[in-house]
């Protein structure tokens, strides 16, 4: 009888962990407005009409088209997560500041 209670507790813990992780991942990261923006840019790229910002060269890479769409969505105020590169740079700056302060 004692072993069944332990087994029941283990399964409930696993089930609650899975449910918690499912809730985190089920939240929408991008708004519908952002996905429409990306879709529009992808169509333009496939037609050969999408140009890069400053240089004006034709965009042929789908990843670049997605980046352009997300950037425009951010400017329009749509719900889009922050850029990954920006987070890495700020973390690197904090780490560099800590190293400099420890040397003094």
What does this structure look like?
- Residues 1-31, 45-57, 81-104 have a biased composition (Basic residues).
- It holds the Pfam family DUF6496.
- Residues 1-104 are annotated as: Disordered.
- InterPro entries: DUF6496.
- By secondary structure, the protein is mostly helical.
- It has helices at residues 2-26, 32-47, 62-76, 84-103.
- It has a domain at 28-80.
- It has 4 helices and no strands.
- Helix 2 crosses helix 3 (62-76).
- The protein is flat, with a radius of gyration of 23 Å.
- The mean pLDDT is 80.
Q: How far apart are the termini?
A: 63 Å
Coarse shape: flat
Oligomer: single chain
Tell me, rounded to a whole number, the average pLDDT: 80
Beta-sheet strand percentage? Answer: under 5%
Helix tally equals: 4
What would you report as the Rg, rounded to the nearest angstrom?
23 Å
Q: What class, by secondary structure content?
A: mainly alpha
Question: Main beta sheet: strand number and arrangement?
Answer: none
Helix content: over 70%
Which regions have little confidence, pLDDT < 50, spanning 5+ residues?
A: none
| Order of helical and strand elements | HHHH
Give the beta-strand count.
0
């Amino acid at each position: 009888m004692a072993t069944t209670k332990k087994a029941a507790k283990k399964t409930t813990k696993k089930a609650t962990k899975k449910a918690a992780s499912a809730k985190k991942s089920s939240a929408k990261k991008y708004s519908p407005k952002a996905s429409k923006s990306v879709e529009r840019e992808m169509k333009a790229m496939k037609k050969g009409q999408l140009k890069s910002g400053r240089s004006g060269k034709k965009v042929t890479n789908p990843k670049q088209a997605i980046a352009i769409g997300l950037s425009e969505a951010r400017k329009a105020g749509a719900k889009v997560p922050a850029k990954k590169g920006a987070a890495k740079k700020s973390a690197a700056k904090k780490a560099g500041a800590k190293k400099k302060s420890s040397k003094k």
